[in-house]
Predict the 3D structure of the following.
Amino acid sequence: MSKVIPLSEAVRQYVRDGDLVYAAGFTHLIPFAAGHEIIRQRKRDLTLARATPDLIYDQMVAGGCARKVIFSYMGNPGVGSLRIVRAEIEAGKLEWEEYSHFGMISRLQAGATGLPFMPMNPTAAGDLERVNQNYRTIKDPYSGGEVVVVPALKPDVAIVHVQRADAEGNAHIWGIIGEQKEAAFAAERVILTAEEVVDEAIIRSDPNRTLIPGFIVDAVCQVPFCAHPSYTQGYYDRDNAFYLKWDEISSNRPASLAYMDEWVYGVKDREEYWAKLGEEVHARLKISSRPSVIVDYGNY
Amino acid sequence: MADYTSPELLTINAARLLRDGDTVFVGVGLPNLACNLARRTHAPNLLMIYEAGVIGAQPARLPLSIGDPTLVSGALAVCSMYDIFAFYLQRGNVDVGFMGGAQIDRFGNVNATVIGDYLHPKVRLPGSGGSMEIAAWANRCYLLTPHSKRRFPAKLDFRTSAGYLNGRSERQAANLRGGGMLAVVTDLGIMEPDETGELVLTALHPGSTVEQARENTGWELKVAARLRTTLPPDPEELRILREDLDPQGIYLKG
């Protein structure tokens, strides 16, 4: 059964006010188009969880969508500060809950595998565990030593961008695979965005590359260039210039709001956004090909 | 006047700390440059691991972020974030971790979280990322930072990652698998822990003085009995950095 629907429809149906949202992707495959659609539909009181909130959550916080953020590294990767989330936290206007990367990702691992919590070896640093009561220390029942545990993270909705998926949501991902699979399995509902919706035969030609099976997916949305200014490995480059530019835009409120007016509220969808970026940007983000050697699964 | 910049000095001295065959958990910026420099000089068999889940990266261009696609193309392996922290770091497969951070105390503990009170932050910093685990589990940790009182306060506002805690014996009692902070490279010299875990000045770069180091450290900085002077950057190291690794001077401009 085909689950292909427009992204606007998927957000309308599957993202609800007050939800815990996990828009996945460690630098790679960040579903910006879905973030922008959530802003346009004026979703409210969301708890936004991501290891690295990145520009997508900076923009969603600027759009007034969030009540709380959960993160492990709140920076603009390679640039510096994530100014809007930071300013809201410093002003006491946004709740936050924070972990180390391994703590954050262990929470998702527990959620994805149906466990109540995950153990980790102690790090002895202490202060993060002191300020976040979700970190607990328990006795290892076998050695008598100590392990640190964090509870399962179970998002109401995960949004995962992929290179290609079939109409049911069986999805191929390559490049940095971050926490896409974990987010999808941990969540109650899954919105899949794909650069390309392809025939099932293409997915079946390389089953080891399927990280997400269709039966856990609720909606499949074909959204080329969904990840910009993040990137899709093998499709287009990361727009590093924009990541640098955002540092400037987000440093003052009028500029941030003007950006949102022009690039989020001012466009209908990702197609319009991509066209508006123009040929110069398209050319700058174009990449040349470097295919892998074909894997032979054999006929049996 | 030296004919190299402060970031070049930091990067070259960091590169020299790496050994051929090391597996390094690499950060972007200067650590990435240091690793690539070491790989092109004395450590051709350096294995670079990035926390984004890339093993054996051979970046063809300077990556701005730790998740740049150039790290993936041509790498030995790519895995999930859970796997990189569990199978690689926690399991004990990482020799060297490079740390960053806003504040470092005399025992090599690092604050990357907040200036001021945690709940009412004066300056909210990005937070741990992977540093809490790297500091605990990598066999050897190094930190690169400019030398200033603000960077080396008497007391941290927040302890994001563990050096020697309140002294080497406390870290030993915590039974962490990693060896802890082995050197802090600054633009004035190098600090290394003594038998108590306290960072003492063990080397000066050519042209810097003990007085400068003391003035720019927030605690009573001890000086090692045998204070070394580091070898100045050599022309080949500078050439590789300037021509091959950071031709636009993104990280290396003074």
